[in-house]
Design goal:
Butyryl-Coa Dehydrogenase, subunit A, domain 1, 3 domains, alpha+beta, single chain, 8-stranded mixed β-sheet, 386 residues, globular, Butyryl-CoA Dehydrogenase, subunit A, domain 3
Length: 386
């Protein structure tokens, strides 16, 4: 992603890349997938946090800070490098919690959670999506009811990334019909965690069932009933980071495939020399550059809190969500029979981009959001009216 990096950002990007290459190359990723319950060891996550992965969206007064003065643009560099290596770790969800607590958390909430997130000792996750429902606040049915001591949460969230591993949850619920965020310990009584199957080998997901889980009144994050705008902001943040990750993944996969095409000979010539394949590579390059460009535009818009942030985020999420899996699938075919094997690394990338496309709004949901913003009627709405 060409963000016209400063010298400090360039150093940060190179440091992150070297750390990932040294500590979790693809053979290690495969090993962790089999042997690490969380998909990664906690001490590795703490090392990443020491590089700044979890502090970029946290204010300086809470122990955070950025490299360039804009934490999100710094963080997308990490996301892209992790995408290039299908790295594990709850980068997106932990940073969403860090961001919302830094902006809206009470003094006690920030003191209880943010130091652990910044140091890497604490993993946190954001609980928005509910099974079979839209990814926005429209899909939130989990209910918070007032009790004598605070609130009780009733409902289901899922899929939740790092839901079983998280020490803290930020849960979006309806309080008197209005979206409200609650800070909930991951081991709270009344919260049942059920592991869910994921497509990505090193990402872990869970379904969380809240059966009257009691939380104090002080658990509310931000104004009660006033989380609509914050949920949209966090959704945009999540989409931007996922788009950067997917763009990094497909850029690396294409480079890998081009290298293979020059090394693989057929009838005495490298595969890359055949005109028909050159045309395919040109088309793939165009698609990859479009992925990088839309991801960059979305990141810049969200970082600047632009009025077009939601629009450009949905453009990126819908385009990359549709095209990234197709690019990887095409590269699998260009690798021939070897690309279809478990031993080859291509399927790791395919799993990553397909999983990302399904989270925080599918491409179809983001196209519907674009249509709504333009005052257009989607097909399902037209059918309903008819």
């Amino acid at each position: 992603m060409d963000l016209q990096l400063t010298d400090d950002q360039q150093l940060f990007d190179e440091t992150t890349a070297r750390f990932l290459d040294d500590t979790c190359p693809l053979p290690t990723v495969r090993e962790w997938a089999d042997k690490q319950p969380a998909g990664y060891p906690r001490d590795w996550w703490r090392q990443g946090a020491a590089l700044g992965w979890t502090s970029l969206l946290v204010s300086e007064q809470d122990g955070g800070g950025s490299v360039s003065g804009d934490g999100l643009l710094d963080l997308v560099l990490v996301a892209e490098e992790m995408g290039r290596r299908v790295s594990p770790g709850p980068l997106v969800v932990t940073n969403l919690v860090a961001s919302t607590l830094s902006r809206w958390g009470s003094d006690d909430q920030r003191a209880a959670v943010l130091p652990g997130i910044v140091s890497g000792e604490t993993v946190a996750t954001w609980c928005l999506t509910e099974p079979g429902r839209p990814w926005s606040t429209e899909g939130v049915h989990l209910e918070a009811t007032a009790t004598a001591d605070g609130y009780a949460l009733h409902g289901v969230k899922g899929p939740v990334e790092a839901g079983a591993e998280a020490d803290w949850l930020v849960v979006v619920a309806r309080l008197d019909g209005a979206p409200t965020q609650f800070l909930v310990p991951g081991d709270s009584p009344g919260v049942t965690v059920t592991a869910a199957e994921g497509f990505d080998l090193v990402r872990r997901f869970a379904v969380l069932t809240f059966e009257g889980a009691a939380v104090p009144a002080t658990a509310v994050v931000g104004p009660p009933g006033g989380a609509d705008g914050e949920v949209e902001r966090l959704g945009n943040l999540a989409a931007v980071l996922q788009c950067a990750e997917a763009a990094g993944a497909v850029d690396h996969v294409l480079a890998m495939t081009v290298e293979y095409a020059f090394d693989r000979f057929s009838f005495g010539r490298p595969l890359a020399s055949y005109q028909a394949l050159k045309h395919r590579f040109a088309d793939l390059k165009l698609t990859v550059e479009a992925c990088l460009a839309t991801a960059q535009a979305a990141a810049v818009a969200v970082a600047a809190d632009s009025p077009r942030a939601a629009e450009l985020t949905s453009v990126a999420k819908s385009y990359i969500g549709d095209h990234a899996p197709l690019v990887v699938q095409d590269c699998v075919q260009l690798h021939g029979g070897i690309g279809l094997t478990w031993d080859h690394d291509l399927h790791l990338y395919l799993r990553r981009v397909v999983q990302d496309a399904a989270l925080f709004g599918t491409p179809g949901e983001h196209r519907a959001r674009l249509a709504s913003g333009l005052g257009l009627t989607t097909r399902s709405e037209a059918d309903h009216v008819g």
